[in-house]
Amino acid sequence: MSSPADLPSMIRRAQRLEPEAFEWLVDAYSARLYGFLWRLTGNRAEAEDLVQEVFVRVVRAIGGYQEDGRFDAWLFRIAANLARDRIRRLHRGREAAFVDEEEGEEPVEVSRERAATEVVHADPSAALELGEDMERLERALTTLPSAERQVILLRHYGNMSFAEVAEAMGTPLGTALARAHRGLRKLRSVMESEA
Amino acid sequence: MNPQERQLLQRIEEDERWLAGVWREALPAPDLSSVKHAVRAAVAEEWLERGLRDEVPTGLAGRVKRQVRAELWQLRAEAAGRETESAAGPRRRRMNRPRLWLYRVGGGLAAAAAVALAFVTLQQPGSGAAPFSYVDAFDLYEADSVLTTEVSSIEQDLLDLEYAQLGFRLDVFDAGMFDELREAIDALTGELPGAEGRS
Fold first, then answer.
1. Angstrom distance (rounded) from CA A133 to CA B39
2. What pLDDT was estimated at residue B116?
3. Domain count, chain B
4. Which residues contact B29 (CB under 8 A, 6 or more apart)?
5. CB-CB neighbors (< 8 A) of B15 in chain A
6. Is residue B16 part of a domain?
7. What CATH number corresponds to the domain at position A122?
């Protein structure tokens, strides 16, 4: 069983490229990473691919990781960067498809919003495993702009401080705080109005 | 954090406490076997990259690649000929695939490094050549893989050399194989001229 107390020694072993240490890290973090990536992309298959990609990146990058007790933040920063790239690619693909359609004159911003919504709802089976509250929360999360959703997810799954969230997203601290505040207010308002 | 940010943080923390009360999910898990498989492959690749980065001499000119490729092609052709002769025997003993791969890639590494080192010896000093990195070394293996695939029409086993297939074969790679791989690379690099000077 993975215990947080073992983490520093597992990181050292992983830096020496011991395969068992990586197995330990996969066991310890994959569920949280999967939850984060699933909520962020809204698509289980994408999330599974991304979890794999995150760990492959970890193998390549862990030699340069400086242990400072913030491994979670480091790991989720990798996950957030990979997810952001993947979502951008998906959006670009969708936008290109929209332009090909007859209503191709639709403003780009509207297309982006529509693409984001479609990506988030791409996996209808996802909701089956959630309780009623979680279902509502899930729906409410999908109504948030991607940046606000990401801040909330990084805080929840990545146990990151706002300074770390800001760094991971490449924004000033005030922006990260404002996004979290706006996102949480909207979530609360949507959830309470449906209750 | 300035006073406005501190005030904002207080309000956020209240909303986060509310959210924590709602957010009670049983975290689902992805298919860990495929994740672990990919990680094992990545560990092996990274391990080889580190070995090459630390052990393959730097300072090689880019144009040496063509010469090395030709040399490797020759070696592979000879290897294929030997394999074919061996296969003609009554019951050829098959090596397990990772071990076969290990020896062949090891042989390729030794050949590439030896040719490269010889070239460097001829070129130095001050040839003004572009530095040769471990990435270049992997380009060589890619090229080697293509050549090997051509040769493999002679002997199917040579497909095992195709570097791109490494990940698919690592399901039979256990910790012991990593040790063997380490020992083999250590032995190969130890035999290179000038290896004593490198850590």
1. 35
2. 56
3. 1
4. A30, A31, A34
5. 181, 184-185, 187-188
6. no
7. 1.10.1740.10
| ipTM exceeding 0.85, yes/no | no
Distance CA B132, CA B129 (A): 9
In a domain, B18, yes or no: no
The string of pLDDT tens digits covering residues A88-141 is 887 776 544 433 333 333 333 333 333 343 344 445 454 444 567 777 888 888
| Stated pTM of the model | 0.56
pLDDT digits 0-9 by tens, B20-37: 888 876 677 788 888 888
Contacts of A59 in chain B (CB under 8 A): 39, 42-43, 46
**Are the Cβ atoms of A134 and B12 closer than 8 angstroms?**
no
To the nearest whole angstrom, how far is the Cα of B45 from the nearest Cα of chain A? 9
Instruction: Give the mean model confidence (pLDDT) for residues B180-193.
Output: 51
Cβ B2 vs Cβ B9: under 8 Å: no
Domain, as residue range, for A168: 4-194
From chain B, the residues in CB contact with A55 under 8 A are 35, 38-39, 42
Domain residues for the domain of B61 are 32-194
In a domain, B54, yes or no: yes
Residue A86, C-beta contacts closer than 8 angstroms, at least 6 positions apart: A41, A46, A50
pLDDT, tens only, B55-94: 444 444 344 444 444 554 554 455 455 444 444 443 333 3
CB-closest option in B25, B26, B30 to A47:
B30
Asked if A19 lies within 8 A of B43 by C-beta distance, the reply is: yes
CB of B18 less than 8 A from some CB of A: yes
Count: domains in chain A = 1
Chain B residues with CB-CB distance to A185 below 8 A: 15
Contact B101, B160 (CB under 8 A): yes
Report the alpha-carbon distance of residue A164 to residue A171 in Å, rounded. Answer: 10
Query: Is B20 a domain residue?
Result: no
- Tell if the CB–CB gap between B35 and A51 is shorter than 8 Å: yes
